[in-house]
Fold:
Amino acid sequence: MDKENRVSITVIRRLPKYYRYLGELLKKGINRISSQELSKMTGFTASQIRQDLNNFGGFGQQGYGYNVEELHHQLGKILGLDKTYNTVIVGAGNLGQAVANYKGFEDAGFKILSLFDKNPKLIGLKIRDIEIRDVDELEEFIKENDVEIGIITTPKENAQDIADIYVRSGIKGIWNFAPADLKVDDDIIIENVHLNESLFTLSYFLNNKSDYVRN
Amino acid sequence: MDKENRVSITVIRRLPKYYRYLGELLKKGINRISSQELSKMTGFTASQIRQDLNNFGGFGQQGYGYNVEELHHQLGKILGLDKTYNTVIVGAGNLGQAVANYKGFEDAGFKILSLFDKNPKLIGLKIRDIEIRDVDELEEFIKENDVEIGIITTPKENAQDIADIYVRSGIKGIWNFAPADLKVDDDIIIENVHLNESLFTLSYFLNNKSDYVRN
DNA sequence: TTTAAATGTATATAATTTTTTCAAATACTA
DNA sequence: TAGTATTTGAAAAAATTATATACATTTAAA
Structure:
């Protein structure tokens, strides 16, 4: 797939939401859904939903709609959720522990093999049977355990150093919670969770509410 | 400001990043910056940066560029960071504690007055001098303490109930970490941090790397 | 004093994203 | 079974967003 045909990032970012709603429908035992109903649920327009899905194939049927289980399954495959990933977390503070404790990630195939920290008080402790190791052992651990995804929950001062170790160790993707833009090789995928930026955006809209509500 | 003149959301979401980089420059003691240099730092084009800033006024000077301190200050004002906000967190698990422990939010003017939970084992404990209270006291606490922002770090099953309490109590904005889309009145600002969606997006790009790298 | 650098602003162009439209297929009802 | 309503997929149109260009004006620096 060349640049012309690749699916735009805005579309990709909507897929997890579709996936989530379809999962909820599945749980409720609903096995058929139309783009119009999905529109009501998700807030996206029906035509946008149809177009988004058609980037990956025709999963629906005219006059019928979509089979919930099938579409959920296909979206899971598209998002790569049919595989499992070995991950590690560097930064075993509250945020690292919060991520480690969230069982939802493991259910989706993201296995957290270990936490790492440089604080001696934390090293050796366990979070849900996941051991906290010395960050000095990070590189070796990654290489020996086929770790694909590295999670960064350190203060921003250490984030780039950890990213460097990740890249050196052969990690393929970084999930970064530190408020910094990491510099890495082009072929490393970075996904940022910038809590600061999210909170500041909320603050902006609070102060400019009238411009955006009901317009 | 009507719909025609309001600033687009894509612009708004870039402001916190400008603000962050300017803060870093300020710390380094750099007091002058050009759009071209900002472009190199942020990855946005110089003309886009100039256009973004000009949505709010002409903060620069021909032949000179921008005064770092002044621009940082102005962006802070635009983002509403020149005020302080009273906030509360419902959900005192790891994630709630992580947010409560992050001093950066307080430095930016977001004061966390209290955490709330329904788990008796947590109620009464303190995180950095912030008390964990029974969620039954939430509504009264909000009304008595002029709380403007409500943070939700509960499991998704409870998120909507908490949102309802928030709205009923007069909260103006919700920062939601639960993987759910909350239904609230139109004039309530919601900012979501959907970690699941972020991780799944990372997963997608890992599996379709070749389409997006160097194209 | 002259030259280089830089913004602000308008305009043009390109790229991207969303909406509209409608033929074709299916489901449903009488 | 026939007729009607529903629904997708796909193409085209429209709208939005991003980028580039141009240049008068201002400042800095040589």
